[in-house]
Specification:
Blueprint lengths: L3 E5 L3 H12 L3 E6 L2 H9 L3 E4 L17 E4 L9 H11 L6 E4 L4
Parallel strand pairs: 1-2, 1-4, 2-3, 4-5
Length: about 100
């Protein structure tokens, strides 16, 4: 089965990584808060989804084939939005091998 990366907060660094993995045959999924960026990601072959604390991912099946997760969404005043909202789905993702956090100083 194809390795699949889900990037929460698909920004510049995640895009650089995704391009390299995509070229190696990986499937790439990503989240953004912007409808415009959503369309741009889809045009580049990324399975894109809108996500933020107020708008969780609407379909738990998104996690079914995910093997790797990269989060680059900084915690907010309430904590880590990915873990707070989708921690249970990540915990039970059947193919998940690796999770990582990418932050800047």
């Amino acid at each position: 089965m194809t390795p699949t990366l889900l990037c929460f907060g698909f920004g510049y660094t995640a895009e650089v990584l995704a391009r390299r993995l995509f070229a190696s045959g990986w499937r790439i999924k990503g989240t953004t808060r912007s409808s415009d960026k959503l369309r741009a990601l889809e045009e580049r072959g990324i399975e894109a989804h809108l996500f933020d604390r107020a708008n969780p991912l609407s379909d738990a099946r998104i996690f079914e084939d995910v093997t790797h997760v990269l989060t680059s969404i900084a915690p907010d005043e309430a904590g880590d939005s990915v873990i707070d909202i989708h921690g249970r789905e990540l915990e039970h993702a059947p193919r998940l091998e690796w999770c990582g956090y990418l932050g800047t100083t």
